Each structure stands twice: as C-alpha cells, then as structure tokens.
Amino acid sequence: MKRSSVKELLHSDKFLQEVHVKGWVRTFRSNRFIALNDGSTINNIQCVVDFENTNEALLKRINTGAAVAIKGTLVESQGKGQTVEVQVTDLEILGDSNPEEYPIQPKKHSFEFLRENAHLRVRTNTFSAIMRVRSALSFAVHQYFQQNGFYYVNTPIITGSDAEGAGEMFKVTNFDTNKAPLNEEGEVDYTQDFFGKQTNLTVSGQLEAETYAMALGKVYTFGPTFRAENSNTTRHLAEFWMIEPEVAFNDLDANMDLSEDFIKYVLGYVLENCKDDLAFLDNRLAQEEKQKPQAQRSDMGLLERLNFVVENNFKRVSYTEAIDILRNSKPNKKKKFQFPVNEWGVDLQSEHERYLVEKHFKCPVILFDYPANIKAFYMRLNEDGKTVRAMDVLFPGIGEMVGGSQREERLDVLKEKMAELDIPEEELWWYLDTRKFGTAVHSGFGLGFERLVLFTTGMGNIRDVIPFPRTPQNAEF
Ligand code: 4AD
Ligand code: MG
N or C of the chain: less Cβ packing under 10 Å? Predict the structure, then answer.
C-alpha cells in the first residue's frame, strides 16, 4: 500500500479506505489518541488506537518523539478541531523515544533551551513552521528572478578579495597553524599556502556578480556569506545567506524599484502558499505580545504586517532628509538616543533606523544618497562630490534588510577612490577590467535572507530562523 503524508490524509475524503502513514508521535492521550506529525504540515492527524485489543507493552512504547508506522481506516472525525482521523488496525514502532531522556516534551520550552537542542527543535510546531516558511521563501526567491529574466550565478565562497572593505573575514588556509612558514620579514608566507595567496570566506558575492551582469545582463546570487564581526545581536549571524541581484543598465531608481517589487513578491508568495504555518506563527506572536506591557505591544499582528508591506509603497527618503527628521525628533531633543544626531555625515545606528521606520514613517523605508565616507568603495559618486548612490531598505522590527547601490562605472573615479582607501589595484585588476571594457551604468543590492525570514515569521532572534546558527563562541552541531 502506498504511504500517504499527513497533509494528504487531512485533505482526503476517501473515507472507509485503508491508509498507510508514518511519522512521529507528538502526544498520546488516554491510551487511545495519537497526534501524529510527519513534517508535511503543521497539523497532526489523530490516530485512534483500539487499546483493548493492543498489548500493553506496545502501548507503553507510544511515546512523544517515537517514530511509528500506522495502517488503518480513514474516517470522519467525531472530535472537534479535525475533520478526519485514522482508526488504527496495525501499529509498528519504528524507533523508540525514551520519555525520561527525550528533551522535547509536549510543553512550552524556552527558545534558549531549544537553541541548545537545535538538532531536535525542528520537531516543534514553531520551528517546523519557520523552516517550512524558510523553504517556501527560498523557492519564491528563485521563482521571482527566473520569471523576470535573471540568471542564477554561483559566485565563489573562497575569495582573495574583501568586497565590503570592512576586513571582518574568516581566513581560509591549509597551513598547520602552529607551523606556518614565515617569510624574510617574519610574517606568515602565504605564497606557500594552498592558493599561493591569502584567502578568506566571502562576505559578499557582489564583485564577481558584477562581472557576470556585464555579460548576462541580469543575474542574482543566493548563497552563504560569512562575517567575523563580533556582533552579539538578535540580527547578526557569522554565517548567513545573502541574495544579491545585479543588473546592467539599472540606475539607483530602478534598483529601488527592483528591491521593493522583489520583497513584495516573495512575501505575497508565502501569504498565498504557507497559510497554515503563518496562521500558527501569527497566533504565536499574538500570545507573545500579550505578555508584554501595553506600551511595548506592536499595533499589528503578523499577517497584518505582511499584508501591509505587500499593499503599501515603501517610503523613499534621502539620507539628508533623514538626518533632518532625526535631528528634530523627540528622542534626539530629549537625549534619548544613545548616539545623538547632531551633524550631517554621521553613520545611522539601528536606534535611528528603527525610529524612522517604526515611529516616524510607520512603513518600510528606502534611504538613499548616503555620505560617501560611510559607504563602500564601489558606490557611485554623486555630482555633489560628497554623497554616493547608496540605498538601504529598512524594515520595522528588523532595521536594515537590504543594502545596495548604483556602482561606480567610471574607471578614473573608481581608481581614485581605491587609492584613497589603500585598496591595491593589483588585487582587483579583474574588477577594474569591467570598467575598462564596455563599462555601463549598473546596480544591485544584497538582501540578508535570515532577516527576511525573521520578518516573515515574526520571530525575535535571527538564531531561530536558520537551522544551525553560527555566532561568536558558538558553532555547535
Ligand atoms: O549591507 P551589506 O553589507 O551589503 C553588501 O554586502 C553588498 N555587497 C550587497 C550588494 O550590494 N550586493 O549586506 C547586505 C545585507 C544587509 O542589508 C543585511 O540584511 C544582511 O546582508 N547582513 C546580515 N545578515 C545577518 N547577519 C549579518 N552579520 C549580516 N550582515 C549583513
Ligand atoms: Mg549594509
């Protein structure tokens, strides 16, 4: 007999027919009712055991977490809250789960506890819902770009260049680190290392993606990126996934349009295709909000937020306008910001970004035209000589979701900028070639996938939306 998934059975009307299903026991009540889940949906199917005709030793093995195979008859359910159930005719324990030892009991566990059990937490409703939504979001990412004429490019993970110039990179070497050979100056001699030079894990695929955009026109990357910044926040990971589209002939306005259209599409996709999981997460968030004091509660539920983003225009504001707003804001005047905003040119902290999106505009905001000296070398210099065509998309509860720019396509201006920042031309000769041969206006951005999953699921900590988070002092699993 063909095995059905729980999801198929819950949508089936093949009553009184024999069915076969396998999964894990979530709960077992009254020696009769198994709530069975196999990951295909957040919903469990109730399997009713004929306990009078089942031997006691077998009943004792039906514990939370055990893997079971069930054959039985699909019937319309008598109980409320479900439409169908399985009357069990045959039950086999595939894998026991000792209740004395199994950490994931049917009760509320803290997220901290579940992080320590990241290999098992996906067996809970919350984490299975998050991970199904995450999967649907990544599918939607590919679907959006593939439907819009973009090519998927796999940029290298090991790289010799520091794309962001921030220097927060993990080294890649196959030296025995205790015995690395030294050169005459007494420094590690990387010419003898595996690649014959110093290499790192990439912080961004952008520079390589740019070279591909200058031939394929519209490209995107979607891969892991690595940052060795010591940021212990709810929004930073040392290993995260980034989506980076790059488009030839797009200026900054087109780049903003693309980011907005893209985000709305993927959110629309999950609203349409992950209804059960989002309903569960919406409810979870509502419960969590109830625990907070009134003043800290958010005005919108999860589904409301997602629909709001899909249905409303993002507000586009220049850095200069944003500084004016912040300078005159209440928290600034009352000295409530940790970093006061006094003059044009300061970098925006997340408290400022959040004030703009959550208090002032109350919607996603695209900030653009930042001061050149707080942004990366590759951004296109404006006519004013002091701002660059940068853009950040800021989201409520998240802060920066997207960072991008129109790229500096003028060889001489780019070289000048690199010289200013001591970026050796020899290292990026191939990048400069794109400006030497057939250079053109082009733009792109990077969206942190986990920040998108964070927003979509209404979770509060980025460590809870990636299967096995890597953060300072933590690389378990
Ligand atoms: O703003 P960032 O640093 O931009 C770039 O790397 C550009 N090269 C992208 C491009 O133009 N192609 O990073 C882009 C996004 C951020 O907006 C944020 O969402 C996410 O990546 N991000 C992180 N997400 C999780 N943990 C971290 N440590 C992150 N650092 C950046
Ligand atoms: Mg950024």
Answer: N
Q: Is the CB–ligand 1 distance for residue 454 below 6 Å?
A: no
Which CATH number, 3.40.50.720, 3.40.50.300, 3.40.120.10, 3.30.930.10, labels domain 123-168+203-464? Answer: 3.30.930.10
**What separation in Å is there between the alpha carbon of 395 and the centre of ligand 1?**
14
pTM: 0.97
Instruction: Identify the architecture of domain 6-102 in CATH.
Output: Beta Barrel (2.40)
Residue nearest to atom 22 of ligand 1 (CA): 448
Angle at CA 303, nearest 5°, toward 301 and 304?
A: 60
Structure token digits, residue 468: 């096995």
Give residue-wise pLDDT tens across range 5-43.
Answer: 999 999 998 899 999 999 999 999 999 999 999 999 999
pLDDT tens column, 229-272? 888 999 999 999 999 999 999 999 999 999 999 999 999 999 99
Residue 267's CB: how many other CB atoms inside 10 A?
A: 21
Ligand 1 close to Cβ of residue 163 (< 6 A): yes
Q: How confident is the model at residue 455 (pLDDT cuts 50, 70, 90)?
A: very high
* Bridge partners (DSSP) listed for residue 67: 24, 95
Give, using CA atoms, the residue closest to atom 17 of ligand 1: 402
